[in-house]
Amino acid sequence: xxxxxVRHPGVRGCYTAGNKRFLQLNELDELRxxxxxxxxLYKEWxxxxxxxxxxxxxxxxxxxxxxxxxxxxxxxxxLRSRWSGPFEVVTVFPYGSFELKNNKGECLKVNGHRVKxxxxxxxxxxxxxxxxxxxxxxxxx
Length: 141
Known about the structure:
Layout: H1 17-53, E1 64-68, E2 83-92, E3 97-101, E4 107-111, E5 115-117
Antiparallel strand pairs: 1-2, 1-5, 2-3, 3-4
């Protein structure tokens, strides 16, 4: 920049205020570049970790899926499930879209992020009732 370090006569290692400020600004730029590099490395590491946790959905035609209901509700019911279905997959489109068919035969096209696999199992059978009075008490001892 054409600036030279000017020393005061008779004082060792003393620079003028302008030159001192110039050195401080250079040091600040170096610190800023170090921080930039550290943030860049952290973002790469975080992206790699996040991508390793993502599992790919393998949903094919004929599978049963649940659909996430993401509509905003002013007074949502706390105990109501936000998943509806099951729906049957009719078509798998590129880039993760699906065409689903409900029990009435109506078709709708949805994004793959709103879908999860539906696991059909044996229906739960009701068991006999158990009264709390019949259980031995731990505090009676």
